[in-house]
Amino acid sequence: MALIVQKYGGTSVENIDRIRHVARRVIETRQKGNDVVVVVSAMAGETNRLIALANGITADPDRRELDQLVSTGEQVTIALLALALQDMNQPARSFVGHQVKITTDSSYSRARIKSIDAKIVKDCLKKGEVVVVAGFQGIDEEGNITTLGRGGSDTTGVALAAALKADLCEIYTDVDGVYTTDPRICSDALKLKKISYEEMLELASQGAKVLQIRSVEFAAKYGVNLVVRSSFNHNEGTLVCKEDKSMEEVIVSGIALEKGEAKVSLRRVPDRPGVAVRVFGPIAKADINVDMIVQNISEDGFTDMTFTMPRTDLSRARKIIEQLSPEIGLKRIDADEDIAKVSVVGVGMRSHAGIAAKVFETLAAKKINIEMISTSEIKISVVVKKDQGEVAVKALHAAFELGKK
Ligand code: ADP
Ligand code: ASP
Ligand code: MG
Q1: Tens digit of pLDDT for each residue in 148-166?
Q2: Which domains are seen in the chain, by residue range?
Q3: Which ligand has the shortest distance to the CA of 173?
Q4: pLDDT of 57-104, one tens digit each?
Q5: Taking Cα atoms as reference points, which of 373, 369, 339 lies closest to residue 261?
Q6: Residues 6+ apart with CB under 8 A from 312
Q7: Pocket of ligand 2 (CB under 6 A)
Q8: What's the number of CA atoms in the CB half-sphere (13 Å) around residue 348?
Q9: Which of 20, 98, 245, 355 places its Cα 20 to 30 Å from the Cα of 44?
Q10: Ligand 1: centre distance to CA 8 (Å)
Q11: How far apart are alpha carbons 153 and 148 in whole angstroms?
C-alpha cells in the first residue's frame, strides 16, 4: 500500500461536475489500494475575485486582512470535495491549513512553510478516510492566517508529501505535464518525459507557472517523487526528479515567459561604496523580491542602476526609494511596466558553448531589442518589450528545435 498526495488546481475544481470528477479519480486511486491525501485550490478565478473585492474597498489592502480573505476560496472546495467523496460512499474529512498545523512565517501573501504536524492526517488515514487539505494557506506563530503566494497550493501538496513521507506527489492541472514551453504560446510544444529539479526550479522562477517555485524547492530538498499530469485524461505526465546523465545531452529543455514584472531605473546615483545596500536593504526588508540587477559603468561619479521585480510590488518599491532619494542623492526614478522576461533553460548549457550567442542572434533576426540580460550556469534570461515576449518565445523555441518535428 502506497501513500499518494494528489493536488488538484483551480480548473480541476471549477464547478460541481469537475469536483465530482476529482472525487471519482481519488476513489480510483483508493481502489488500487493506496492511501490518499488530497490538496485542492480554490475554484478557478475565485482567488482573483476575492482580491478584486478587497481592491474595491482600498487600493492598498492591509496584508493580514487580505490573507484572511483570500484563504476562504480553498475552504469552499475542500468541503465540497469531502461531500462529493462521502456521497460516493468514500469516508472523507476536510481540513483548513491551521487544522493540520501548517505553520508559516508571518510574511503575508508570500509566507514560507516552517513545519507541518500532520498527526491528524495520519490518524484519519488509519481510519480509512481520504483527507482533503486546503492548499495555499497556513498559520503563523501568533495564530494569524497566512497564504503562500499565488499558485501556493502546489507547495502545500509537495510540503505535505514531504512531511508524510509519501511515496508519490501528483500535481493535477489543465495540461498533461511540463512542456518545452507554455503550450498556450507554442502549439507545437512537446511534453517532457522528465525534467531535473534544477531545471524545473529555473523554469518556475522564470514564469512557468505550471509549478510554484517553492514546491520545486521542497521536492528537491526532500527528494519528493513529483509528477505533473492532467485531471482530464490518463496520460503519463512529467516526472520531476534528480538530474541524470541523459539530461545533459539536451542543451535546452525549456523556455519560460514572465509577464508579471516591472523594471525600475534609478538615474544618476552617486557611485560610491554603500549605495547599493542603502537601496536594496530597505527593499528586501519590505519583502520585495528583486530579480535582475544591472549597474552601468560610472561616468563623472554617477551611475544608473536598473532592476526588475514583481509588478504588484512596484508602488511599494517606488515609495521606499522616493523616501530614500534625498539621502542617497539620486536624480530620478523611472518605472517601466511594459516588459517581459524570456528565459532559456537547460542543464546541457554547462557543457555547451555558444548558447547565449544563438539567443541574441535569434532575437536580432526578429528585430527584438534586448533591454537587460542575466545568466546562470543553466539559464539565459533577457528582458524585452512586453508585446514582443511571445514572439521571442516562439522564435527561440524554433531556433533550438524544441517543437514537434
Ligand atoms: P493550476 O490551476 O492547476 O494550478 P496553473 O494555471 O497554475 O494551473 O498552471 C498550469 C498552466 O501553466 C498551464 O495551463 C500552462 O498554460 C502554464 N504553463 C506555463 N509554462 C508551462 C510549461 N512549460 N509546461 C506546461 N504548462 C505551462
Ligand atoms: N488559489 C490560489 C491562487 O489562485 C492558490 C493556487 O491556486 O495554487 O493562486
Ligand atoms: Mg497553479
Answers
A1: 999 999 999 999 999 999 9
A2: 3-174 (3.40.1160.10), 244-405 (3.30.2130.10)
A3: 1
A4: 998 899 999 999 999 999 999 999 999 999 999 999 999 999 999 999
A5: 339
A6: 260
A7: 9-10, 41-42, 47, 73, 135-136, 150-154
A8: 15
A9: 98
A10: 12
A11: 8
Q: Which cell numbers in the block locate residue 128?
A: 480509512
Per-residue cell: 230 = 492532467
- The verdict on the CB of residue 174 being under 6 Å from ligand 1 is yes
Model pTM score:
0.94
Q: Which of 125, 131, 159, 138 is nearest to 38 (CA)?
A: 131
Distance CA 71, CA 146 (A): 8
Cβ 135 vs Cβ 116: under 8 Å = no
Is any ligand 1 atom within 6 A of the Cβ of residue 208? yes
Q: Judge residue 54's burial from the number of C-beta atoms within 10 Å of its C-beta, 0-12 exposed, 13-18 middle, 19 or more buried.
A: middle
Q: Can you tell me the mean pLDDT for 270-275?
A: 88
CB 256 within 8 A of CB 213: no
Res 354: pLDDT:
92
Give the closest residue (by CA) to ligand 2 atom 5.
151
pLDDT per residue as tens digits for the range 316-352:
999 999 999 888 888 899 999 999 999 999 999 998 8
